[in-house]
Every structure is written in structure tokens, then in C-alpha cells.
């Protein structure tokens, strides 16, 4: 498969490309006419030029969604589910175009982009089914002349702010339950990857969602648009995935009207290999979890703890596997590691690496910046707790290795960060598996498994890794309000 390198070639190859915002069932420009460029991180080429909305534009979009809410929430669950099922089918029918579009704007390799289309679509299918299971309760009354009923109702207009590293799945994981529950949605993708979001909007329109129910705003003015979404009282729910620092700011801004929020924030995932582990399986899990999307995922392994007894064997096998990874443009079929998203991301990787080397770490594999935004997959040995990389997620293809000899010690080290999103460990002792899984202070644990994300399980963290859960039956609750109704005077 040949790489596409120019904007003209790309537009010819992809019928789903849209460059305007999608509002009230129409493709619209910003009132000011402003635009911004979307850059392919693998080549530096301009992929497309997209509408750049401001706070005034977004305020009007909120009004549109608010006006669409009463009619949409009054649809039956079966009617909403039918639209979601059609949307699910359309996403899969357009899998290849969506995958290529995703790779062009975020850089991940094409095999991963195809996997993300499947993963993202799975949330639409799941919540289409869950729409008919938003159950309430009948509670035994406290007196004979009363009846107590509890129902769950749509929370209202929902704004979603999504990240660039999963341009499709982070949208569907949020809007799937919102739409199933009867909430109109406003999707704000990042300026790095708006094209996938707009393509998904095109398919939502074809699926039959009424005008105003599904809206996508594109903007480079993140601060002012985010403030409007937080402080506008017509937005009843905000769902955000991104950095902890930004999540704290949004939470503070939402406090002005006590908006319901869900925050999926930063991580610093430990990966522990105990002396009784299946070493080959652990190496495979480490590669899958650490180097997926060039290490740019919130649940990526950030710290690898390896027991003294199997340290040399493990790092020898890991080094061999990492050395074999092929770096290149995500559209090239042989590529396994794509570029970092931008210069800021590349600078962070280099800063973490320089700090680690200055404090005694050694490069075992990789360690070099390549042309453009590419960086070699890297293994660091001799990592210690005083290094920046031990506390701050590197968000790049660098794997620091820490040695340990005691179970209690390694659990303390694994928990010694402000974050608590995901963790992983490998052991064949069933008693240890239960003991360690319960002791790790995180929202998700992979036990002998490096790939834990699925639509059927709750995704989310503790501590400074966020608030709330996405996916699974638990994910629906964050888009509903519980109403208690007391019927009195019954004889």
C-alpha cells in the first residue's frame, strides 16, 4: 500500500473528509470565517483546513442542542437504539476510510487505526443494547397509603471534549451512552485530529439522528470554547479525556453551575514482572501495552518493575523484541511505530530521557531522535524513583526498567504516584494475583494481560486519574439523573 502524502491525493482517496463543523444537521463555517490547518505528523503536510469556531459560535450550538433535547428524550429507548445500531453498522462499513483518515491526522499505524474503528464501534453497539435497560425501581413504601417509584432520566445536553490519541473511540465511548440515555451531544475534538470526528458526524447524520441531537464543533480556541462549555448552564453534563492539569481546570469551571462531570485523566501505569511469571507472555504484554500508538495512550505502561531473579532474562528478551519494531509512516504496511503527535510531545520524550540519563540510567536499546517527529523505541535500565519518568507519564516510546526484590516494596513503589488509572502485573501464583490486584491503588488492573480495554468493562481511574467510569453497564449512569416519585393518598 502506498502512502498518501498530499492534501489533494488524500481528499480524492477519502469520501468522508469534511472541513466544516456539523451543527443542527448542517455543515457550517465559523461566523468569522476563521480556519486552522490539520497537520500529518508523519510528513508535516497540511492534510486539510478546518472551520475554527469561537465562543460566540459555540454558544449558538449549545442553544441548538438544548432546543433538540425535549423531542429526543421523549423518543422510546427502542427508537434511540435503532439509530445507534444503524450508526454502528455505518462505522464498520466505512472502516478502511476511517482508519486511513485517522492515521493521516494522528500518526498511529494503520493496523492500530483499523483496530480503533472496531473498538470505537463496539461502544455504539453496546449502548444501543443498553438503551433498553435503563431500569428504575419500585421501593416498598414506608406507609400503606404511599407508593414509591424511582426512574432514571436523561441528564440533558452533554458536551464531550476528546483527545487526539484515540480520535474515534474516545468520541463513541462518551456519546454512545449519552445518545442512548436521550441526551443531545456536542463533540469537541482536539485541533490535532478533527477530521475523524467530522467523518463520524457524517455517519451519524446518515444513521438518522434528528437535527440538533448530534453536533460537532471544531476549534483551535480551546480555552475560550472550553470555558463556554463549562459555564453555560444549558450544558448539563461535561465528559473530558485528557491531562490531569486540564481536567482540574475544567472541574473548577464547571463548579460555577455544579455541572455533572466525568473526567478520564492522566496515568502512570506500573508493569510488574514477578519471579514466577511466564516471561515470554510478560514480554509480549509489555510490548503491546508500552509501544501501542508510540506509547501515546493513557493506559500505556510507564514504569516496568522486574524481579531480580528474572531481570536479566526478561530484559534480554524485551530488548530483542523492541529492536525488531519497525518505525515509519503509519500508512506504510511494515510500520509498527509511528510518529509522535507534535514537537511538544517529542520535546517531552527527550526531556524525560535526558533527566533519566543525568541520574544514572543507561540506554539499552534505541534512545535516538529520528527525522521529523519519529523517535526510536527505547529501553532504559537503571531507572530510579528520583527520575521524572517515575512520576510523570512520558507519553512516548521509552520504557524505563526498575529492579525489585520484595512484593511489598514493589507495591509501595507502584502506588507512589498521584495517579491511579491502570496497572499490570505477571505472576502464576493465584494467591499473589488476588493479593496484588487488591493492593494496587488503581481503577483497572491487567493480570497476565497487557491489553485490558473493552466496551463490556468499566474504564476509569482513582486519585488524580479522574472521576467516573466509561463503558459497560456502569457507564450509562453518568448520563442519567435519578428521580424519586412519591404517590400519596392511595387507598
From TrEMBL:
Q: Where is the organism placed in the taxonomic lineage, from the top?
A: Bacteria, Pseudomonadati, Bacteroidota, Cytophagia, Cytophagales
Which residue range or ranges hold the Aldehyde dehydrogenase domain?
27-484
Q: Which residues form the active site?
A: 264
Q: What PROSITE patterns does this protein's entry cite?
A: ALDEHYDE_DEHYDR_CYS, ALDEHYDE_DEHYDR_GLU
> Which GO molecular function annotations are given, in alphabetical order?
succinate-semialdehyde dehydrogenase (NAD+) activity
Specify the protein name: NAD-dependent succinate-semialdehyde dehydrogenase
Q: Which domain of life is it from?
A: Bacteria
**What are the recorded Gene Ontology BP terms?**
gamma-aminobutyric acid catabolic process
Query: What family classification does the UniProt entry report for this protein?
Result: Belongs to the aldehyde dehydrogenase family.
The record's annotation in InterPro entries points to: Ald_DH/histidinol_DH, Ald_DH_C, Ald_DH_CS_CYS, Ald_DH_CS_GLU, Ald_DH_N, Aldehyde_DH_dom, Aldehyde_DH_Superfamily, Succ_semiAld_DH
Key words of the record: Oxidoreductase
Q: Which PANTHER family match?
A: SUCCINATE-SEMIALDEHYDE DEHYDROGENASE, MITOCHONDRIAL
Amino acid at each position: 500500500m502506498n502512502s498518501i502524502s498530499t492534501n489533494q491525493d488524500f481528499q480524492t482517496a477519502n469520501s468522508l473528509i469534511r472541513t466544516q463543523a456539523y451543527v443542527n444537521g448542517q455543515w457550517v463555517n465559523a461566523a468569522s470565517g476563521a480556519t486552522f490547518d490539520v497537520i500529518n505528523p508523519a510528513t508535516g503536510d497540511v492534510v486539510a483546513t478546518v472551520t475554527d469556531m469561537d465562543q460566540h459560535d459555540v454558544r449558538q450550538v449549545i442553544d441548538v442542542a438544548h432546543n433538540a433535547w425535549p423531542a429526543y428524550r421523549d423518543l422510546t429507548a427502542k427508537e434511540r437504539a435503532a439509530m445507534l445500531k444503524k450508526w454502528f453498522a455505518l462505522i464498520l462499513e466505512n472502516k478502511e476510510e476511517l482508519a486511513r483518515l485517522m492515521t493521516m491526522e494522528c500518526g498511529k499505524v494503520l493496523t492500530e487505526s483499523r483496530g480503533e474503528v472496531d473498538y470505537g464501534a463496539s461502544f455504539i453497539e453496546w449502548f444501543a443494547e443498553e438503551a433498553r435497560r435503563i431500569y428504575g425501581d419500585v421501593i416498598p413504601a414506608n406507609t400503606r397509603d404511599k407508593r414509591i417509584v424511582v426512574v432514571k432520566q436523561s441528564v440533558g445536553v452533554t458536551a464531550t471534549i476528546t483527545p487526539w490519541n484515540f480520535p474515534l473511540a474516545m468520541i463513541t465511548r462518551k456519546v454512545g451512552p449519552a445518545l442512548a440515555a436521550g441526551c443531545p451531544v456536542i463533540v469537541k475534538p482536539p485541533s490535532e485530529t478533527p477530521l475523524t470526528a467530522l467523518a463520524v458526524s457524517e455517519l451519524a447524520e446518515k444513521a438518522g439522528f434528528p437535527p440538533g441531537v448530534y453536533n460537532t464543533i471544531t476549534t483551535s480556541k480551546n480555552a475560550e470554547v472550553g470555558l463556554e462549555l463549562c459555564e453555560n448552564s444549558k450544558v448539563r453534563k461535561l465528559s473530558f479525556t485528557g491531562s490531569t492539569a486540564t481536567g482540574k481546570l475544567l472541574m473548577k469551571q464547571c463548579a460555577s453551575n455544579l455541572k455533572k462531570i466525568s473526567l478520564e485523566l492522566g496515568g502512570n501505569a506500573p508493569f510488574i514482572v514477578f519471579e514466577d511469571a511466564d516471561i515470554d507472555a510478560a514480554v509480549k504484554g509489555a510490548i503491546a501495552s508500552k509501544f501501542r500508538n508510540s506509547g501515546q495512550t493513557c493506559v500505556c505502561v510507564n514504569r516496568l518493575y522486574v524481579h531480580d531473579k528474572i531481570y536479566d532474562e526478561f530484559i534480554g528478551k524485551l530488548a530483542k523484541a523492541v529492536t525488531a519494531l519497525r518505525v515509519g509512516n503509519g500508512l506504510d504496511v511494515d510500520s509498527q511505530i509511528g510518529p509522535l503527535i507534535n514537537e511538544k510531545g517529542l520535546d517531552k520524550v527527550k526531556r524525560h530521557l535526558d533527566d533519566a540519563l543525568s541520574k544514572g540510567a543507561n540506554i539499552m536499546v534505541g534512545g535516538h531522535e529520528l527525522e521529523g517527529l519519529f523517535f526510536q523505541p527505547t529501553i532504559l535500565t537503571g531507572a530510579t524513583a528520583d527520575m521524572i519518568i517515575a512520576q510523570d507519564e512520558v507519553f512516548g516510546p521509552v520504557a524505563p526498567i526498575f529492579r525489585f526484590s520484595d512484593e511489598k516494596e514493589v507495591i509501595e513503589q507502584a502506588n507512589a504516584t498521584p495517579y491511579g488509572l491502570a496497572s499490570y502485573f505477571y505472576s502464576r501464583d493465584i494467591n499473589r494475583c488476588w493479593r496484588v490486584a487488591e493492593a494496587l491503588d488503581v481503577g483497572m488492573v491487567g493480570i497476565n494481560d497487557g491489553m485490558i480495554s473493552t466496551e463490556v468493562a468499566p474504564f476509569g481511574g482513582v486519585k488524580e486519574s479522574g472521576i467516573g467510569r466509561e463503558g459497560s453497564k456502569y457507564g450509562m449512569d453518568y448520563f442519567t439523573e435519578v428521580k424519586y416519585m412519591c404517590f400519596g393518598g392511595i387507598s
